[in-house]
Amino acid sequence: MNWSKSSFLTSFGSLSQMPPSDRIEVAFxxxxxxxxxxxINKLLGRKALARVSSVPxxxxxxxxxxxxxxxxxxxxxxxYAKTAKGLxxxxxxxxxxxxxxxxxxxxxxxxxxxxxxxxxxxxxMIDFLIENEMPFIIAFTKADKLKPTARKERMAAFxxxxxxxxxxxxxxxxxxxxxxxxxxxxxxxxxxx
Length: 193
Hints:
It is a single chain. By secondary structure, the protein is α/β, with parallel strands linked by helices. The protein has one domain: Rossmann fold, CATH 3.40.50.300. The chain has helices spanning 36-43, 85-100, 120-131, 148-161, 181-189, and strands at 7-12, 25-30, 62-67, 70-74, 105-113, 136-141, 170-172. Strands 1-3-4-2-5-6-7 form a seven-stranded mixed sheet, sandwiched between helices. The longest helix has 16 residues, at 85-100.
């Protein structure tokens, strides 16, 4: 797969705007400011393809990127406390509706900040994916921010904090160093087999 020939395709603010799915889709989900856009940029080998912001809750649409013959889908971040309730509800409907819609969604990459215990919203999303039998993996972001001992401790804690952890494929990642990017690419490319 040629990752360097990736491009932004389009954005949708509602499910009704989306055309039918015509190829494999891999969605990236996670709380606001977990590093979805940065990780997508690293995955696609581009510096600023997905817009990165230091302000949480900036992505309010579902953004589609074309990577060879796969769509990489950046879902709006959830859980930002300062977001109005009405907007939170519409994001929730948009994210949940997209995931359970009749699309070629083959995998959800659920992002969790490696430095912290999963938030209540993270756990709700993981439960939602499990209940809807949606194939997913967990990408632990910002792994480079922890020293080896702290990383080991967090992974041991995640095993107790995340339901069915032993059955979930997990990848420790860093958008800074590129750690885990090859593994993510490998997992995504395997969907085409």
